[in-house]
Specification:
The protein is mainly alpha-helical. It has helices at 14-28, 38-50, 55-70, 76-100, 108-117, 120-129, 135-155, and strands at residues 3-4, 11-12, 158-160, 170-172, 180-182, 184-186.
């Protein structure tokens, strides 16, 4: 039976609590799910493949392009997206360069990130991409670092190293731009 909260005069029901929790969760969400017609997905998949990208990253870029094209001048969000793209491009190019020099090993993700972090220009862009410093930046850092790790792996044709139990092997590091990463092996 629903009761009424005298302070708000709103019913105090489980359904109301669930709806409220859902609204809060959606407001914080960063993922969006939607359906595409099979032909649309196939075309986007081919375009992504032609550009050497995963479908999700490609679709993200398409949506960000729209935002950048329609953003007013000096828009902070557009500036952050441009910085994120520069960070991604730099890391992918650096990964390919280091791989070409024979620097690939199971700790390649942290190797690339350590090398990138030596560049002051890169670090300036990285801080813009995550929104500066503080708690909000720390929250933005995690998904960017995860994306960078995936793109490093893909850019050199590697895959996650598996443990004897069949799980992806991970490592942790402190005092670096990243705190954890997937160990890699080449897919030959």
């Amino acid at each position: 039976m629903a009761t009424t909260d005298p302070k708000t005069a709103a019913p105090d029901t489980d359904a109301g609590k669930t709806k409220s929790k859902r609204a809060v969760r959606l407001a914080k969400a960063t993922n969006v799910a939607f359906s595409l017609e099979p032909e649309v997905r196939a075309r986007f998949s081919q375009e992504a493949k032609d550009q050497g990208m995963e479908l999700g990253h490609y679709l993200q870029k398409v949506l960000e392009n729209h935002l950048l094209d329609s953003a007013p001048e000096d828009d902070p969000l557009a500036e952050r997206i441009r910085a994120k793209r520069a960070v991604i491009d730099h890391v992918v190019n650096l990964a390919q360069e280091l791989d070409g020099k024979g620097k690939f090993d199971e700790h390649f993700v942290v190797t690339v990130m350590k090398e990138a972090a030596k560049d002051d220009t890169f670090m300036g862009l990285y801080h813009i991409a995550i929104g500066g410093e503080g708690k909000a930046a720390a929250r933005a850092q995690k998904p960017l670092n995860q994306q960078l790790g995936r793109l490093i792996r893909k850019s050199v044709g590697a895959r996650g190293l598996r443990t004897d139990a069949g799980r992806v092997a991970r490592a942790q590091v402190s005092g670096e731009i990243i705190s954890s990463y997937t160990l890699l092996t080449k897919t030959s």
